[in-house]
Amino acid sequence: MFAVIAAICMSLGPLAAPARAAEIPIVTGEQWTGSNEAVKKAYLVGLANMVQVQSAYQGSNPPSDEQSFLPRLAKGMQGQTLDSVREGVDRWYAANPTKLRHPVLDIIWFEMAVPRLQKNK
After folding, report:
1. Suppose 29 and one of 57, 65, 100, 104 were both cysteines; which one would form an S-S bond, judging by CB atoms 3.0 to 4.6 Å apart?
2. Residue 32: other Cβ atoms inside 10 A
3. For position 82, what pLDDT does the model report?
């Protein structure tokens, strides 16, 4: 398993190269649809870890909705698995092939998390 994770990290290396603030790479459908399942899962694990680190860092004093979207993202994605999110993003890009320039995080937020948040109001 460690070898698989190491290989994924190595394959993502060019995306993580030092960049000026204005040049931070954003993963879009162009990269997503050209990636294999392992790379897609690695991206989603990174996103999930970012949410978990933020939550652990804030502890019992989470930021308000105006300060961060991460608590809302976590709430909107409750019950989802890496595979269900990957499959959902895959379906969205398959249904919208002319929108490959849309960032993956936009798809996760607007197409998956927000509708679930609105349902659970």
Report:
1. 100
2. 21
3. 96
Q: Which residue has the tokens 């996760």?
A: 108
Determine the Cα–Cα distance for residues 18 and 34; give it in Å rounded to an integer: 23
User: Which pair of structure tokens corresponds to residue 35?
Assistant: 């990636």
DSSP codes, 57-120 = HHTTSPPPTTT-SHHHHHHHTTT--HHHHHHHHHHHHHH-GGGTTSBHHHIIIIIIIHHHHHHT
Token pair in block for residue 34? 């050209």
C-beta of residue 86 within 8 angstroms of C-beta of residue 41: yes
Tokens 């933020």 -> residue:
54
Q: What is the rounded distance in angstroms from the CA atom of residue 107 to the CA atom of residue 90? A: 10
The structure's pTM equals 0.77
- Which two three-digit tokens encode residue 29? 């459908």
For residues 72 and 78, give the distance between their C-alpha atoms in angstroms, rounded to a whole number. Answer: 10
Cα(2)–Cα(91) distance, integer angstroms: 29
C-alpha 40/C-alpha 91 separation (Å) is 13
